Amino acid sequence: MHDISKLDECKTEVEISRHHREEIPRIVEQLVQSCRQGNCFDHVGPEPIPHREAIIEIVHRTSRILFPGYFIRTRLENFNVAYYFGQEITALFEQLSEQIALALRHDCIRHDLPCVHCDELGQAATVDFMKSLSQMRSMLATDVRAAYEGDPAAKSYDEIIFSYPGLFAISVYRMAHQIFEQGIPLIPRIMTEYAHSKTGIDIHPGAHIGESFFIDHGTGVVIGETTEIGRHVRLYQGVTLGALSLPRDAGEMLRNKKRHPTIEDDVIIYSGATILGGNTVIGARSVIGGNVWLTESVPQDTTVFLKKPELVYRDKPRES
Hints:
Layout (H helix, E strand, L loop, with lengths): L1 H20 L2 H13 L15 H15 L14 H30 L7 H14 L1 H18 L6 H7 L1 H17 L5 H13 L2 E2 L4 E2 L4 E2 L6 E2 L4 E2 L4 E2 L4 E3 L8 H4 L7 E2 L4 E2 L4 E3 L4 E2 L4 E2 L4 E2 L8 E2 L16
Parallel strand pairs: 1-4, 2-5, 3-6, 4-7, 5-8, 6-9, 7-10, 8-11, 9-12, 10-13, 12-14
Helix pairs in contact: 3-4, 3-9, 4-5, 6-8, 8-9
């Protein structure tokens, strides 16, 4: 009797499941119709777009080239450095040229542009990027030294390269900035937003940042597209180098205009400071204190800070 009852329960569950599954074709049709009516963003067509995971792999492969021996599990010896670079560079060429071609072709088809021979251009752009890697390594070496000199807690260069989120964000920015300057769409922003998701540091690939740049701690730092940063600049967590608030319809008018501040050489900006506007210039060797809000320029050799707040102390009543 018990077995018969159990069998009836199973049959009931199967019928209920069948009833719910019958709803699936209707839901699929609704989604298809919403795409045909233009009510959603989609990329339905014969041409694939750049692949986010492939670009993330390019970021890590480029890191292995820029910092050889740090991000591999095997030992790197002097006698096989050339082999190591040969393997990594060849793989980078194949991966990056494919993704650049996809990005270019995506824009051509979407915007009905004249043919630019995407595959050939992707390979040429990848070679240009790879030619910049030696100079990029030299630039990143100044960033590592700046971190060591600016942070007494740093015990070694190795610690900085392995573990500092600021250096990772800067490294990815320098890769992405090179590709951005070459006029390649989509890929630079995918790179920097990946670093943003990992570190909480948001650097637009279009920003211009000089050598020996150091972000201490880093979480919450925002550096806008048209920001210009000189040499030997140090930022702390929560710093915003942003644009002034804009009217709703001003986006297109200001899209290619300077909207973010200029930070000259040897400036220190402490945590929580907000500096806004394309005409705002922080003069060389100035110090901007924590939580300062600036929308106007600061002369060279100036310290800007908030007045010390008044603290109120009250005795806490004791419970009887």
